[in-house]
Design a protein that fits this description.
Elements (H helix, E strand, L loop, with lengths): L4 H18 L2 E9 L6 H14 L4 E5 L7 H4 L8 E3 L2 E3 L1 E3 L3 E5 L15 H13 L6 E7 L6 H10 L4 E6 L6 H13 L4 E12 L6 E2 L6 H8 L4 E7 L3 H7 L3 H4 L4 H10 L6 H10 L3 E8 L2 E2 L8 E7 L5 E7 L8 H8 L4 E3 L5 H9 L3 E3 L7 H9 L13
Parallel strand pairs: 1-7, 1-8, 2-6, 2-7, 8-9, 9-11, 12-16, 16-17
Antiparallel strand pairs: 3-4, 5-6, 9-10, 12-13, 12-14, 14-15
Bound molecules: adenosine-5'-diphosphate.
Adenosine-5'-diphosphate binds next to α2, β9, β11 and α8.
């Protein structure tokens, strides 16, 4: 049902309120993870504190409605929020960091919160539109694990966040969840600033020898496969848990340790602008892009096209190879397998059904729909140059 004029006006007014409230925040970075317990909140806190240590003005927003851990990690439990005029004042940590969390609103942390999607969206909207963030260099947003309502809300409300940092652990088990995170970002056009692989081996405090606890190269391999920056590996450190339990940010209180150094190295690239990170990323990346063809140009009928142009690009963003291949006979689910099996990581299409888009997303393949009937070379150039105009999903079979 379309929105009434009144509703549309209200929505515009809210959007304007958000815009005004966050217009002095220069950079917004989301911290995501595919699953819980990988150290996402620890990374978010350490990143925010580290940025403050670089003399940046920083805000930390915890949108983990069901399990807010930021108040605990900063020893701010029990802090009371204050309102001023129509704004909510964030809690100030260590005279510098501005912190907001649903945890400050909950009286009894043992009571489970049962909130439906729209309620979560509304409270996150308040965090963005009514908290007086003021002038900030960075707003770090700690999202709950997974790709549910909260990260979706925050991406929609912030309009143009700089991007996401994805936290994972090295073992294979975490990989499927990271893939979902990556496709979530791609579907929302949210740039991926990089992957951090946390809990990568244990460094013995006595002999400095590293022992791998989770075998695998999950994060590193993912970053390579999906052409996203790998920010670094953070070892397991026996001081991290007590630091968290006491609410003493690890990076500040243990700043001489190898783990603090690893965090420092992982965070440093985030100081560069988003554009630079993306450029470096694209420059270092090789891609395999598939385009359905009809008569030498993009075909609008994805599932029934004659051929696919499969194009490889090199690290200088030039086309290094093109092959025109005949797809296997049409059957549901056959194309994602065929294209995924060839290592295709992007599809540029005219129209494509929702189900097929989901299947590609699950295989970690980015899909651009609504592209015009142009030559594959022109489309690839436009995609790499970020000028590809995507229109309507004209044909969805
Ligand atoms: P998540 O937000 O992904 O659920 P947390 O940040 O709450 O994870 O971390 C889960 C637990 O793991 C916490 O007790 C935290 O102190 C601990 N932890 C996180 N990273 C490390 C690390 N590199 N070394 C040791 N313990 C860690």
């Amino acid at each position: 049902m379309p929105f009434s004029q009144e509703q549309q006006k209200q929505m515009q007014a809210q959007q304007e309120q958000i815009k005004q409230n966050i217009k002095h925040i220069k950079h917004q970075i989301l911290v995501l993870s595919g699953k819980g317990g990988v150290g996402k909140s620890s990374i978010a806190v350490n990143l925010a504190v580290w940025l403050s240590m670089q003399s940046k003005k920083v805000g930390l927003l915890d949108v983990d409605i069901h399990g807010p851990s930021i108040p605990k990690l900063l020893n701010l439990e029990g802090s009371k929020l204050q309102g001023r005029e129509d704004k909510i004042e964030p809690i100030i940590y260590n005279n510098t960091l501005k912190v907001m969390s649903i945890g400050f609103l909950i009286q009894d942390e043992n009571v489970a919160l049962i909130w439906r999607g729209p309620m979560k969206h509304n409270v996150i909207k308040q965090f963005v539109s009514e908290v007086s963030w003021g002038d900030l260099d960075y707003l770090i947003v700690d999202c709950p694990p997974g790709t549910g309502d909260e990260p979706l809300s925050i991406v929609q409300l912030l309009e143009k966040p700089d991007g996401a940092v994805i936290v994972t652990t090295p073992q294979q088990l975490a990989v499927t969840d990271v893939k979902k995170c990556i496709t979530f970002c791609k579907q929302l056009n949210l740039p991926i600033l990089g992957i951090i692989e946390n809990m990568d081996g244990f460094i013995c405090p006595h002999c400095n020898q590293k022992t791998d606890i989770f075998s695998g190269d999950g994060g590193k391999q993912m970053a390579k496969d999906f052409n996203v920056p790998f920010l670094g590996s953070i070892p397991i450190d026996s001081n991290m848990v007590p630091a968290a339990d006491l609410g003493k940010p690890f990076i500040y209180y243990n700043n001489q340790s190898p783990t603090a150094q690893a965090l420092n190295n992982a965070f440093e690239p985030l100081l560069r602008s988003n554009k630079q990170i993306e450029t470096n990323n694209k420059e270092n990346s090789k891609m395999r892009i598939a385009i359905p063809l009809f008569d030498g140009k993009l075909s609008q009928h994805f599932g029934h096209c004659e051929k696919f142009a499969v194009i490889d690009t090199d690290s200088s963003n030039s086309i290094s190879n093109r092959e025109d291949l005949t797809p296997p006979p049409h059957e549901p689910g056959v194309l994602p397998k065929w294209l995924g099996g060839m290592g295709v990581n992007v599809i540029i299409a005219g129209g494509m059904g929702q189900r097929a888009q989901q299947l590609f997303a699950q295989n970690g393949i980015e899909v651009v729909v609504g592209a015009p009937a142009e030559s594959p070379e022109n489309l690839v150039a436009a995609y790499l140059g970020k000028t590809l105009q995507s229109g309507e999903n004209l044909c969805d079979h």
